[in-house]
Amino acid sequence: MNDKFYVTDCEGPLSINDNAYEISDFFIPEGGHFFSILSNYDDMLVEENTEGYLAGSTLKLILPFFKAYGLTEKDLIEFSEDNIFMIDGAYNMIKYIQSIMPCYIVSTSYNQYIKALSDKTGFIYENTYSTNLQLDKYDLNQEEQDKLLDIHDNILFDSSFENIHRIFTNVISKMEINNLIESVKPVGGIGKRDAILDIIDKNNYKPENLMYSGDSITDKEALEYARDNGGLSISFNGNIHSIESASISIASTNNLILAVIADIFNKKGKSAVYDFINDYNNESLETILNCSDNIEITQQLLVNKPSIDIVTNDNKETLNNMTKVVRDKVRGKNIGNLG
Asked: In the predicted model, what is the mean pLDDT of residues 181-206?
């Protein structure tokens, strides 16, 4: 099939949330800081190319502490439903792209959050991939609960890689609650690439017809797959990990530019998108007016002028500095600094 199709990460390109961080911050003492420590440990394991380790495994590592502080799936669902915050333009962007091409979300987020977000935005939930979590299936005995509460304090006191690695390798791995950790397979890193391959296989798509957008280390393999197979690979308000893996970098407080690019890609192909970017950087006003048929999208883009750049070996650090400002503004520094 020659149909174009769009696959996107959720947190970053669509929502400003980091759902797991926010759950931790709400339910666990000093939970935001604690989650950030585990996220940094997770990033180090990914960067060291630890065999068999999946990017996004912070969502596994935090789970024993969810149990220790009494969280249930009902808590996760209700919190997620009440705390969905979309980037400006996202509702119209989702509606528009779903009307012109097949659209999928591939997210490291828990399935409870993705279901809540789909219900709220009108996204087709059957077209989503996320980290499946069955939190209530696993019990925590009193002895292990007490030990985990002590471990929580220990990690806050000593957040070194060596201490955390010792705890998870020599202590938590020997606890019964470790079965909960082992039950979860995060859809991050190669998991996102595998989800794309599944989408392609099930629908007989061609890789070069893929448009993918992401913003973090969990999108690295998916962005590289799109880029290396002739598709459209977009880092949207991305950190250095995503910029280094993408062909295009966008910094914007509004994501409707993705709808414009999707429309061009769908109608005219990849080369037309690159022509649009070159024209846009020479004369943004005229280019937007010429390329967008949707009056509402055009008006919002003229007000919220995005930065759009083709990634080269020479500009990656410059783009990272540019997107960091927008990333922190849109998502806040605590979430913006997560890998």
From this structure: 95
**Confidence band, pLDDT 50/70/90 cuts, at residue 336:** low
CB atoms within 10 A of CB 218: 34
- Cα–Cα distances (Å) from 325 to 257, 336, 337, in that order, read 18, 9, 11
| Nearest alpha carbon to residue 226 among 198, 207, 202, 244 | 207
- Count CB neighbours of 151 within 10 A: 20
Q: What angle do CA 243, 277, 106 make, to 5 degrees?
A: 45
CA distance 239 to 336: 8
For the chain, strand residue ranges (E) read 5-8, 103-110, 128-131, 210-214, 232-236, 248-251, 307-310
How far is 336 from 287, CA to CA, in rounded Å?
A: 30
CATH homologous superfamily of domain 5-13+88-130+188-336?
A: HAD superfamily/HAD-like (3.40.50.1000)
Find out whether 307 and 5 touch, Cβ atoms under 8 Å. Answer: no
Q: Is the pLDDT of residue 260 over 90?
A: yes
Report the alpha-carbon distance of residue 231 to residue 207 in Å, rounded.
6
**Residue 323 is which amino acid?**
T
| Tens-digit pLDDT profile for residues 43-92 | 899 888 777 777 789 999 999 999 999 999 999 999 999 999 999 999 99
pLDDT tier, 339 (very low <50, low <70, confident <90, very high otherwise): low
Query: With 80 as the cut, is the pLDDT of residue 302 above it?
Result: no
Distance CA 165, CA 69 (A): 22
Tokens representing residue 59 in the block: 């969502």
Spell out the domain ranges in the chain: 5-13+88-130+188-336, 19-85+133-183
Q: Rounded to 5 degrees, what are φ and ψ at 108?
A: -75, -15
Q: Is residue 279 a contact partner of residue 223, using CB atoms and an 8 Å limit?
A: no
Can you read off the two tokens belonging to residue 156?
Answer: 């806050």
CA distance 328 to 255: 15
β-sheet bridge partners, residue 308: 250
Q: Which CATH class is domain 19-85+133-183?
A: mainly alpha
